[in-house]
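Batch manifest, entry 17 of 40.
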Amino acid sequence: MGALVERHEQVWIKVNAPVDRGIAQIVSILNRLDGLRTLDSCEGIPSQTPAHIYFNYGDWRKIGALMFERIGPALWGRLGSDAVVSLEIFNASEPMGKLSFDKEATNMVASLLDQLIYERP
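Output type: structure tokens
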């Protein structure tokens, strides 16, 4: 028999695509960044699989600066070393980012991303 796949309730948000309800706020926050396009997301399953969001955001330099100069340090600094937050960039021809984190941290990640992305210097 194949693996059991848990289906999550989906809601429509500005990106005009169905998104798991539990991660919709973060997808919406990220999509407010000019030029960022989310591609796939899942709210995760507690103690089994992390929540994740895949997205494009320009070239390697632009997506790298967003992930490793802004998002990463802010999340790790505010959530602490015990939080499971992972940032990845891959795909040579069209860089794709992946942000993943414990489902239990979803509300905190949403709040921090909202503050981080829209804070003024």
